[in-house]
Design a protein that fits this description.
Elements: E1 2-10, E2 13-19, H1 30-37, E3 47-52, E4 59-65, H2 74-86, E5 93-98, E6 101-108, E7 111-115, E8 123-125, E9 128-132, E10 136-141, H3 150-158, E11 169-177, E12 180-187, E13 192-194, H4 198-212, E14 216-221, E15 224-232, E16 238-246, E17 248-256
Parallel strand pairs: 2-3, 4-5, 10-11, 12-14
Antiparallel strand pairs: 1-2, 1-17, 3-4, 5-6, 6-7, 7-16, 8-9, 9-10, 11-12, 12-13, 14-15, 15-16
This protein binds 2,6-diaminopimelic acid (API).
């Protein structure tokens, strides 16, 4: 069977993108998803995204991590908006459905500004934090994230009893300036550090911004630069959350499976 695909990356978080408006892709075939994401035997990616038609929306994005598990993917959603614009499904605004519900996005001067779901609360986990931004995120502030053992420590937290059985993504943050943080992320379902994690940097920005009273945070990730804007409500909720950054098409191709 031949599958046509496009490869996109959002600040280094990379995805196999499939225009599946014909609904031909078997979304139950997780073995195929993992095979396509395999960096040696397949195309290679952190995840795979199907673009499907959906009544009442410009499109639906169905996201899979490389291991076939599903969750909300912020960078993947930004790439889905860019891909849908390339396909002519949207122009500069998109209203689409993801696993965590509806999202709105705007394409503005080469960036995608993605509306994230509201966040109800930030929790403490020992000296660290936990927040769900559409995907679960453990967040630890460290002195020198550049030299921090992200994969070892990330995996041990991800597989800890506290997060069994579903696990969590794990983010490590250092401050670069008052409104600028440096984030590295161990991603559940990729089971490795990724070059950036959209829902992860959003989690880190909300926690950091809430502590500092700043609602527009710049983020440095290994794969590029992002920004998060939000409105903190008196009751501890966060709304009007925007994840802003680039999303690029890298190549297109067909694969025989
Ligand atoms: N690995 C995450 C989903 C993808 C998140 C990340 N790629 C993003 O950009 O938000 C999880 O299983 O919760």
């Amino acid at each position: 069977m031949e599958i046509s695909f496009y490869k996109y990356q959002g600040t280094g978080n990379d995805f196999v993108m499939i225009d599946d408006r014909s609904a031909h892709f078997d979304e139950k075939n997780l073995k195929l998803v993992s095979q396509l994401c395999d960096r040696k035997f397949g195309i290679g990616a952190d995840g795979l995204i199907l673009i499907r038609n959906k009544e009442g929306y410009d499109f639906e994005m169905i996201y899979y991590n490389a291991d076939g598990s599903q969750s909300m993917c912020g960078n993947g959603a930004r790439c889905a908006v860019a891909f849908s614009s390339f396909l002519g499904i949207v122009t500069e605004e998109a209203h689409f459905l993801a696993i965590d519900g509806p999202h709105d996005a705007r394409i503005e001067d080469g960036n995608i500004a993605l509306g994230m779901g509201d966040v109800t609360a930030i929790e403490r986990v020992d000296d660290d934090f936990y927040v769900n931004t559409g995907s679960p995120h453990h967040v630890r502030f460290v002195k020198d994230v550049e030299n921090y053992p992200v994969v070892d420590t990330g995996a041990s937290i991800r597989y800890s009893d506290h997060y069994t059985p579903k696990g969590t993504n794990v983010n490590f943050v250092s401050t670069l300036a008052e409104d600028h943080i440096y984030v590295r992320t161990y991603e559940r379902g990729v089971e490795d550090e990724t070059l950036s994690c959209g829902t992860g940097v959003t989690a880190c920005a909300l926690i950091y911004g809430d502590q500092k009273g700043i609602d527009h945070i710049k983020i440095k990730a290994l794969g590029g630069n992002l920004a998060v804007k939000f409105k903190a409500l008196p009751d501890g909720r966060f709304t009007n959350i925007l994840l802003i950054g680039p999303a690029q098409q890298v190549f297109k191709g067909t694969i025989t499976v």
